[in-house]
Amino acid sequence: MEAAPRPPAAHDDRQETVEPMSASHIIEGHMRAILLSAALAASCLPVWAADAKADNVNPEDVIKKFAAKEAEFREARNSYTYTQTVKLEVLDSGGNSTGELWTERDDIIFSPEGKRGEKVMWAPVSTLHQLLLTPEDQDDLRNVQPFVLTTSDIPDYQVDYLGREKVDEIGCYTFSVKPRKLTLGKRYFEGEIWVDDRDLQIVKTYGKGVGVIKKSSDNQFPKFETYREQIDGKYWFPTYTHADDTLHFKDGENVHIRMTVKYQDYKKFVGRSTIKYGDVVDEKGQPQTPPPAKKK
Predict the structure, then answer these.
(1) Range 3-6, long-range pairs (CB < 8 A, 24+ positions)
(2) Is the separation of the CB atoms in 189 and 139 below 8 Å?
(3) 8-state DSSP, 292
(4) What SS3 string covers 80-107?
(5) From the CB of residue 167, how many other CB atoms can be counted at a distance below 10 Å?
(6) 35 φ, ψ to 5°?
(7) Of 21, 95, 174, 283, which one's alpha carbon is 20 to 30 angstroms from that of 247?
(8) Distance between CA atoms of residues 291 and 274, nearest Å
């Protein structure tokens, strides 16, 4: 998201007088900074590091298996219709809505010919004036927030095993994920994923969309959390994405946003069969002339 352009601020010719800092104050400040940094470093040591070695897990084997399952899921999800509802609002310093809002409801459907596409069902006029939605935001909405990590995607990412953790009483393997290299025009996920240790599918993701951004632009992206649910008794489908983050723009403006995405009403698409009527075929595969209709 980009900050909307603002009118130039009035110039202030007043000067601020700053008292020079003494050398003792400078040294004292440096010492405090060093001690604080050391304390933070100690408190932020990865507590999962020991667990990752002690739980007797072969990370490479787990990654290989869950990536294959994710490939199956992506193929399956492409045969489902569903409804996607997005709500993005700007919040004030107290966490209350400012009235700036963008919302849209789309149906992911199939045409009579079986072609998959999106149809906008509801899209009231946006009241956003501090933010501008970009193509990167739309790409993240479609591909990054409902993140899928398949076998073909693995070479693009550095995937590191962190340990075991429970998500809503579901035992999970936890991995950190980040792109190895950013390619112009492509969006990536960077963050953490939780993989069900029985079904070997992603059940939760936390992170943000990343990619190559033009130096002239100021495009900021929120951190988000996506949850999946088992819809068909076999695969875990994204059902809910939530973001509550402050976007820090280069001009110093900070914009607090809240976004929710709901994926609902998953239904498996069944293509229509075309039946052609013609000659009756016998067991040997030879066409036969149908018997004449009997007169009543």
Answers:
(1) 3/130, 3/131, 3/132, 3/218, 3/220, 3/247, 3/249, 3/251, 3/253, 3/255, 4/128, 4/129, 4/130, 4/131, 4/132, 6/251, 6/253
(2) no
(3) P
(4) EEEEEEEEEEEECCCCCEEEEEEEEEEE
(5) 15
(6) -65, -40
(7) 174
(8) 24
- How far apart CA 133 and CA 251 sit, in angstroms, is 18
Query: Residue 282 pLDDT more than 60?
Result: no
Structure tokens at 1: 């998201």
pLDDT band at 270 (very low <50, low <70, confident <90, very high): confident
pTM exceeds cut of 0.70: yes
Residue position matching structure tokens 């003494």: 22
With CA atoms as reference, report the closest residue to 6 among 110, 139, 129: 129
Q: Return phi, psi of residue 32, to 5°.
A: -60, -40
Name the H helices within the chain.
Answer: 23-43, 49-54, 59-77, 135-139
Contact by Cβ (8 Å): 100, 130: yes
Q: Domain coordinates of the chain in residue numbers?
A: 47-267
Count of residues making up the chain: 296
